[in-house]
Amino acid sequence: MISVDEAREKIFQDLIPVGTEVVPINAALGRVIVEDIHPRRTQPPTDMSAMDGFAVRAVDVKTVPVTLKIVGEVAAGGCFTGVIKTGEAVRIFTGAPLPAGADTIIIQEDTEFDAGQVTVKEEAAKGTYVRPAGLDFKEGQIGLVAPRRLTARDIGLLAAMNIPWVTVRRKPVIALLSTGDELVRPGEPVGESQIISSNSLLIGAMIEAAGATALDLGIARDTEADIREKARSARSADMLVTLGGASVGDHDLIQPALASDGLNVDFWRIAMRPGKPLMFGQLKGQPLLGLPGNPVSGMVCSLLFLLPALNALVGLPPQRPPQLPARLAHDLKANDQREGYMRAEIIGVENGTPVVRLFDRQDSSMLSVLAAADCLVMRKPLASALPKGAEIMIIPLRDTYQTL
Ligand code: AMP
Ligand code: MG
């Protein structure tokens, strides 16, 4: 058995980024840019007002109150063609270009005015409420550095930079093959001792949420021939993920079935709980990740290995899942030699640190507990027992704002 970290290293070594495509920015959320992006425009293009008020010369408002003559008006999208001279002001609105000669904005609230003149009641330093040209970004500078997964904020920035299209990695296609004589699809006729296949739906949803495409190959019966045939239908996928059949039972047939098709096993079995029977290898150059059949094990292994692998496939550094410190709401017994990822709920926050309670039931088949969990509590191999209140590390599961 190898460690979680060793397994992750081995997976990343073997993954090559997929090719690229050009997409409009309104379809680019979560996609990964492959080249640095340079603004095609300076923003703001010229000095602009940040407020509704009056454009003045700072020297004219050194002593207040002072009354100035209103010589014009300019709103966003407009233009004042003249030049402001000593003793003059121009009525101005947010986003309007600063008239020539003016260098300062007096906000409306600091004035009294009628049609012809304005009395400035508060002084203002030169440049107050003026957004100088290029404040946000300048044409030709670097706007976004590749590789980068685009967030909603990035999409806004790209639009402002006048970039309507971007070159991104295409979405990796991940083929999912479930295995097991006991499995039927949701909604199909189901026998007394059968179970509904949930694993491929769960992991397919994780893949889609991570910005890749899940290709469901269906359920292979527990025969070498069926596994081989269905796996062959995934040749064009960027990675094949098998679910179940990777353990040591008589019905665990992934390895024997694919051996004759050239499967090269890199490693098999990791010192972790849940998820021991994880396998990684190459099937004639196609990366193959063999996940355990139990849904909780499959999900945890996907979080630790598959999602980072998806990052590697789009040319991003393969990150580990984010971890946070938390405190235990109860005593915790010592761990054995397998790294642990236990389902837990966050029951409160003390001094800014989440307080977590492990679910009593940690069976790796239990989807109800997995769905209820707020986080996974991590345990190092052979970690000693911990008292209530001790600090432990968690992987939060409710981080829904990754692409914000
Ligand atoms: P296996 O690795 O094939 O021995 O599967 C381990 C356990 O996970 C067994 O109890 C299977 O019934 C269950 N299992 C395997 N595949 C799935 C699946 N796609 N959905 C739900 N449970 C599964
Ligand atoms: Mg099975």
Fold and architecture overview:
The protein has helices at residues 4-13, 152-160, 199-209, 224-232, 254-259, 295-313, 367-372, and strands at residues 20-24, 32-33, 48-49, 53-56, 66-74, 88-92, 104-107, 111-113, 117-120, 130-131, 148-149, 165-169, 173-179, 183-184, 195-196, 213-220, 239-243, 263-268, 272-273, 279-283, 286-291, 324-328, 339-350, 353-358, 375-379, 391-396. It has 7 helices and 26 strands. Strands 7-4-6-5-9-8 form a 6-stranded mixed β-sheet, with no helix packed on it. It is an alpha/beta fold and 404 residues long. Bound molecules: adenosine monophosphate and magnesium ion (MG). The site of magnesium ion (MG) has 6 residues, from loops.
Helix content: 10-25%
Oligomer state of the chains in this structure: single chain
The helix count comes to 7
Estimated radius of gyration: 30 Å
**C-alpha geometry:** elongated
Mean pLDDT, to the nearest integer, reads: 95
Q: How are the strands ordered across the major sheet?
A: 7-4-6-5-9-8
- Give the N-to-C terminal Cα separation: 38 Å
Structural class: alpha/beta
Largest sheet, in brief, is:
6 strands, mixed
Query: What is the tally of beta strands?
Result: 26
